[in-house]
Write a structure and sequence with these properties.
Blueprint: H1 2-9, H2 16-35, E1 43-47, E2 55-62, E3 66-73, E4 86-92, E5 97-102, H3 109-113, H4 119-143, E6 150-153
Antiparallel strand pairs: 1-2, 1-6, 2-3, 3-4, 4-5
Helix pairs in contact: 2-4
Protein name: DUF1249 domain-containing protein
Pfam families: DUF1249
InterPro entries: DUF1249 (IPR009659)
Length: 162
């Protein structure tokens, strides 16, 4: 019995922040395997697998250490005219982390949890967004989306021009 207790006592426990950082690392691995966005230039890309529900990847900006992306389906919400679901993503090249910064147009964390939320609430909100992103990336991979199905689209054929 004492041997079993000593083994469990040596297992480190993750804090919520540590768990969030691990989630960012998992999301980076999933996104990298799915679309390898680090190698894409600024612009819009579509992944089509023939199910009528194309995935749109917008590379908004690339910097030395980060890539700003938007991941969505190529369809619009009839009420707002904006893509839904939609996730804005920041990929950190040097740290191998990927973070969902917000998941709906016009709904940043300040809109959801207020201007001065307690730190635990901020971490909880980020955990929910990034859990959603991880599950979505996993689902897209299971459906067959990936680098092989990704093609660049010109500005005239983008959703914004419609």
């Amino acid at each position: 019995m004492s041997q079993a207790l000593s083994r469990t006592a040596r297992i480190p426990k993750l804090s919520r922040f540590g768990w969030l950082m691990a989630l960012y690392a998992e999301n980076h691995a999933r996104l990298h395997r799915l679309f390898a966005p680090e190698g894409l230039s600024t612009g819009s890309y579509l992944s089509s697998i023939g199910d009528g529900l194309d995935v749109r990847l917008d590379v908004i900006e690339t910097h030395r250490y980060t890539v700003e992306l938007r991941l969505t389906y190529d369809l619009c919400d009839p009420l707002t005219g904006e893509p839904d679901p939609s996730a804005y993503v920041r990929l950190y090249r040097d740290a191998h982390q990927t973070e969902a910064t917000h998941c709906y147009v016009g709904r940043r964390w300040q809109d959801v949890i207020g201007l001065y939320p307690p730190p635990a609430q901020v971490i909880g909100h980020r955990m929910r967004m990034n859990t959603f992103l991880g599950k979505w990336l996993e689902y897209l991979a299971e459906q067959g989306h990936g680098v092989a199905t990704l093609r660049r689209v010109e500005a005239a054929t983008t959703m914004d021009a419609a």
